[in-house]
Design a protein that fits this description.
This protein has 261 residues and is α+β, with helices and mostly antiparallel strands. It is built from seven helices and 13 strands. It binds hexanedioic acid and magnesium ion (MG). Magnesium ion binds next to strand 1 and strand 5.
Length: 261
């Protein structure tokens, strides 16, 4: 376990790599004592700094929740991260890549919560009861690690590679859909880049929220009413560059498009 001063130093390195985007070696190279809990301690420090700067926490992301993503990244458990209001882009936006290192996109199902969830063991039924809407999302990831070489502790400290996200399509009541079998198609420049079913996310995307609430509980927190939750990409993440147009189709939930400039 790392001491508070070392965790502060890591948080400074991560915050700088995110703010004036540049790559860094995976954090465990320089800080071999960094473990998963330490990664979340770094996230807490990022949140404290961003909140002090007037930035607003609006929700949480689960990442690495599908087998495809776990295999792509060489990890065996999901990660969680924080979502700030200034990460949001509007549907149809033109997103500048200038402020990113190596952006990648993934299609995921977002949950908009109407009630708080708390405790070590909420059920899928309780999660569906607490959900106002489910909605299509595109997450734009930007890992700050050189050549995508990282481990779970490092990626957690980098807030799960969070950069931007877009909500779109049609908000739907969660019980009006079978959330295990929604087909997702991710297109880049008119070509199909990835296909998946929503059940690729832990069998049911609400399972990512079940694990998230348990993680929040372990850190003395809850999932507040009003939160946006990204449940994790069902496919692997697809690289994008300036000029690319990305279109994500979600069965019975509508579509989202974004362009990169
Ligand atoms: O949202 C996520 O699945 C987190 C992924 C973290 C690793 C990556 O940069 O792909
Ligand atoms: Mg994601």
């Amino acid at each position: 376990m790392l001491d508070a001063a070392t965790l502060d130093t890591i948080a400074t390195q991560v915050a700088e790599a995110q703010a004036a985007p540049h790559t860094m070696p995976k954090l465990t190279d320089d800080f071999p004592g960094l473990d998963v809990e330490g990664g979340y301690d770094v996230q807490d420090r990022l949140l404290a700094r961003w909140s002090a700067d007037g930035r607003e926490l609006i929700g949480y992301k689960a990442g690495l929740t599908s087998k495809a993503k776990m295999e792509q990244m060489g990890v065996t458990e999901p990660s969680f991260g924080i979502l700030m209001r200034d990460f949001v882009d509007c549907e149809g936006s033109v997103i500048p890549t200038g402020g990113m290192i190596h952006p990648r996109v993934e299609a995921e199902i977002a949950f908009l919560m109407k009630d708080e969830l708390a405790g070590p063991d909420v059920t899928i039924e309780e999660i569906l009861d607490a959900t106002e809407f489910v909605q299509p999302a595109i997450e734009i990831l930007d890992s700050r690690f050189e050549k995508f070489k990282f481990d779970l502790a490092s990626v957690i400290a980098d807030n799960g590679s969070a950069a931007r996200f877009v909500l779109g399509g049609r908000p739907r009541r969660p019980r009006d859909l079978d959330l295990r079998t929604i087909g997702l198609v991710l297109e880049r420049n008119g070509e199909i880049a990835a296909l998946a079913s929503s059940g690729a996310v832990l069998g049911h995307p609400a399972e990512a929220i079940r694990m998230m609430v348990s993680w929040l509980h372990s850190r003395g927190r809850t999932l507040p009413a009003g939160s946006v939750v990204l449940t994790g990409g069902a496919t692997e993440a697809i690289p994008v560059e300036a000029g690319d147009a990305v279109f994500a189709r979600f069965q019975d939930m509508g579509e989202i498009s974004v362009r990169f400039a």
